[in-house]
Structure formats: C-alpha cells, structure tokens
Amino acid sequence: MSNVSEPVNQQQWQQDGYLILRGLFSPERCAAANALLDELWQQRTDLEHPITIDAWLESAQSRRMLFADAPDDARLSPYKINDLYRDFPAIRQLILDPSLSDVLRQLLDGNPLVCNSLNFEFGSQQASHIDTLYMPPRVDNKLVVSWIALDEVDDSNGPVQLYPGSHLIPPYRFSNGGIKAVGAEMDAFNNYIREQLQQRDIKPVPFTAEPGDVLIWHAQLLHGGSAITDADKTRRSLVTHYFRQQDYRHHFWRLRKEHPHGYYLHRRHAPPN
Ligand SMILES: O=C(O)CCC(=O)C(=O)O
Ligand SMILES: [Fe+2]
Predict the structure, then answer these.
(1) CATH number given to 10-265
(2) How far is the CA of 46 from the centre of ligand 2 (A)?
(3) What pLDDT score was predicted for residue 252?
(4) Residue ranges per domain, the chain?
C-alpha cells in the first residue's frame, strides 16, 4: 500500500482531537456522490442488496427499514442510509481515496479498515456523544471517523458540533468496566461528561464547510449534530468509521476485503429491527 505523502498535523490532532482537510475532494467528485444518492432514491425498489435506511431521525417516528420500502416522504426529513460502501465502488473510492487513506494511516498507525458508512442528506441533530459508546475498537483509540461534506454547511443546516480537547477526558467506565454504552447508565455517563467539560472549560464549535472539505475525528472526541434552523437546506455528507486493520487480523477475516488503499468489511446489511 502507498507510502505517506504529507505528514499530518500531529500537534493539532493531539490537542484538539480532530483535523480539518479543506478541499480534499473536487466539486466534480462531490457532485458525482450527490448524483448517486439521487439515482439510488429513484431506483431503490430495484436494488440488488438489502440496504437499510434509518428514517425520521431524532423523532418519535424514527425507525430502520429497508431502503426499498422507504416512502418518498422519508426523503424530506433527516435520515441516514447505511453502508453504501459495501455495494457501491464509487463510495469506496471516496472513503479510501489515497489522499484520505494516507492521513488515516498516520492517525491509526496502521491501515484503515472501513467498518461502516452513513449517507446523510440533512443534519443528524444527534445529541452529543462519543463513537466508542457504540463501536469500541479492540485497541484503545484505534478508531477514526471521516466526515466528508457534500454540501455547503453553515449555521442553518445543522453543522456537526465538536468539543475540542474532549478526547483527552479519561473514558467513562460503565459498571461492567467497559466503555461501550450501557443503556441504564447513560445518565451517569452524561453527568460525568458535563462535569469534565466544565472543569476543562470546553465549549462546542461548529464545523462549517464547503463541499469537498473533510473532518476527521478521534475515537474519544465528543461531538453531535446541531439543530437545523432551515429545514429546506440539505446538508449532504458521508460519514465513515474505520478500525485499524491489524487489530482485526484474526477477526472478520472472512469478511475483510482489500482495496488499493485500505480494507473494508463486506458484512451483511443490518436488518430492520
Ligand atoms: O453528521 C452528524 O451530524 C453526526 C454523525 C455522527 O456523529 C456519527 O456518524 O458518528
Ligand atoms: Fe458520532
């Protein structure tokens, strides 16, 4: 696999827990990703694979269903389409592009292994959280996330909010000793985080962007989706979580596929609940 082309700003990564790579993807590549999304919506009933969508995010109607079964109006509210990377090489070309993989490889100290991807068309409005609550890596901190802007993002269309330096907060340990979320203990988790933010005087900052800008965050960085104030304004984005390949050498080996600039998991699509 390719060698490192340009060293990342390790100091900023260590201090803030995220990196911003402006203009990593051309307007043409963003337009192609957006055209693919339109095409998928138009052809969703004919899809070969059981792709799922989480529709009406952060509302009482929120649910997972087969994308093929999604009504047209599910496209009008925040949603995410899961794991398009699995069946669409064009998505893999973006999320394992050599320019992005080079950065991920330096941050992970090893090859990236894509474990999921999410396509959004609007802001997620998701409450602040840490991704290791839901996908703890086998080796501490060896999870990174890329967030590719496919639209302009400003204060009106629900930018991601980042808490600089929050990745340095010692991980909260649930009663079983782990860092993975235990549903009944989330109030205690949120209280702990709130106190830590106060002590460290950490305030959230929005990630405003142009199409093609990429944000990369640390496994332990606190982040969320802010409120949408202009419901008509799209905020298309492609979010990918990567583990480090070497940590899964003896896991998922049947599912692991090689790509010119990294690896990805060819998992079964998560069925609707
Ligand atoms: O896009 C967003 O608003 C947040 C997405 C997120 O937190 C995630 O995918 O882990
Ligand atoms: Fe997240």
Answers:
(1) 2.60.120.620
(2) 30
(3) 82
(4) 10-265
